[in-house]
Specification:
The protein is of the alpha+beta class. It is globular and about 45 Å long. Helix content is 33%, strand content 20%. Strands 1, 4, 5, 6, 7, 8 and 9 form a 7-stranded antiparallel beta sheet that branches. A two-stranded antiparallel ribbon has the order 2-3. Strand 7 and strand 8 form a beta hairpin.
Length: 249
Amino acid sequence: MKFGKLPARPDAVQLKLSTYLDSIVLPDIPAEFGHEQVVPDYGMLGNDTVGDCVLAGAAHETMVWAGEAGHTVQFDTAAVESDYSAITGYDPKRPETDVGTDVQAAASYRRRIGVVDSAGQRHRVGAYVALTPGDPAQLAAAAYIFGAAGMGFQFPAYAMQEFSNRKPWDVQPGTPEIAGGHYVPVVARRGGLFSVITWGRIQEMTPEFYTRYCDEALVYLSTELLTAGRSPEGFDLAALQADLKALTS
């Protein structure tokens, strides 16, 4: 498996979710939520051989949003790697150009241009804001309200064995070796564990792991998760857009 998230740049994303949350009355966030099962096959999308995790994550987030609204959107490796190339300059004929992706640069690309699916259709996000890294309560609120949240983190080497054994990512004692920077969508919470999508499947994670290793996180506003203007959890698009517009002014 490959990684591919470049080092976090604090405050690269100026809009903060904490500002947004301060402006509204939050609903009670249920102990369990998520629609991760709406996608039967997420696909590896090249992340076993190329460090395109940020773009694979973008594709996986888009698949979840569409699935929540009852639609099917498909991505393939060629489409995801084309966006990876557009953002980073990656050239498949030059392996040395496989250097990873800046999360903020990818978020800007997703808002301005959008990621392309296997049918050639572009999927743009309307806005994106930064979460406070390592705050599991804020992460839960973001994933619940917006359908998914993007987590950038430093991947401890031992977590690969947990992934292989289908065990939750958790904190282990000591100072582990860091294998690289990684990006995953957080899409659910069940049994006290968060569910993320990585390397083609669902992986569980403890809140403590998130607190320890997350170094940046984003949430995106996508109209693709909406049915009749509302998200599956009943949130109104117009209200969300108004709140996010207020942040930008």
